[in-house]
Amino acid sequence: xxxxxxxxxxxxxxxxxxxxxxxxxxxxxxxxxxxxxxxxxxxxxxxxxxxxxxxxxxxxxxxxxxxxxxxxxxxxxxxxxxxxxxxxxxxxxxxxxxxxxxxxxxxxxxxxxxxxxxxxxxxxxxxxxxxxxxxxxxxxxxxxxxxxxxxxxxxxxxxxxxxxxxxxxxxxxxxxxxxxxxxxxx
Length: 186
Hints:
Shape: globular
Distance between the termini: 64 Å
Order of helices and strands: HEHEEEHEEEHEEE
Largest sheet: 6 strands, antiparallel
Number of strands: 10
Helix content: 10-25%
């Protein structure tokens, strides 16, 4: 620093001010479906809401009521408790998926469970911003939103005006009355 040029060290906030929009992490909306039918399902879902709020770079901004629903997929097992969460996150979709899977693992979920079988905890990333993705690990928007009341009804509570690519507004999607029973419990 020749000639008496004195500079103060840059802080994180200074760096954030000079970053371009592409470099600055943005808050993006994300919506998560929650389900459990093992090991005290209501407690599993309540705990999952708390754990979602603890994900770094993520805020839980809304949560649905809880719903009890009949099992989906033809496998005999106990009823599910379901809900939905609205998040704002700075994480990428894949990093958020990793955080959701880490929560499932901490709560006792085994990844080798039967498809549509009983679950200690199931966290599905339903929608991430306006992203469209068809990857072996993640499909966005989630393909079952409109066909499953246990996803659609809780999601309507937290994001009725959400427009989902290829589907339309959540509050305008028809409820499938041929689907197994579902009722709001809390």
